[in-house]
Amino acid sequence: ERACAASEVADGQAIRVEVDGLDVAIVRSGDDFYAIEDECSHAAVALSEGEVEGCEIECWMHGSRFDLRTGKPTGPPATEPVPIFPVRIDGTDVLVDIDSPLRAG
């Protein structure tokens, strides 16, 4: 499903979008786009309001960090992963497949 236009997401930033009723953070790092459920597994706050550095996003509330490629926590206090979703660019649109979450193993 279409999440947003690629131009809506600045490099090193995240935006919150709703895709089929689910809040998703669309994150851009250079030419790469990522989609991660927009809720920290530790404190249930929006990850899209956090800082992006490379392939990680940091929760603004307590500093938990998550790998955007796997959803796995890379910094405490979070210990549980956050679902991520396949992303592809179609022309100028960012498409997200929320029906096929990629769970951290």
Uncertain regions: pLDDT < 50 for 5+ in a row?
none
Please list the strands of the largest sheet in the order they lie side by side: 2-3-4-9
Mean pLDDT across every amino acid position: 95
The gross shape turns out to be globular
**Radius of gyration using CA atoms only:** 12 Å
Please report the total strand number as a whole number.
11
Gap between N and C termini: 25 Å
Please report the number of helical segments: 0
Structural class: mainly beta
Strand percentage lies at 35-45%
Order of helices and strands: EEEEEEEEEEE
If you had to describe this structure to a student in words, what would you say it looks like?
With 105 residues, the chain is mostly beta strands. It starts with a strand and ends in a 9-residue tail after the last strand.
Name its key features.
105 residues, mainly beta, four-stranded antiparallel β-sheet
Topology:
Blueprint: E1 2-5, E2 13-19, E3 22-29, E4 32-37, E5 51-53, E6 56-58, E7 65-67, E8 73-75, E9 84-85, E10 87-90, E11 93-96
Antiparallel strand pairs: 1-11, 2-3, 3-4, 4-9, 5-6, 6-7, 7-8, 10-11
Task: Summarize the model shown.
This protein is mainly beta and 105 residues long.
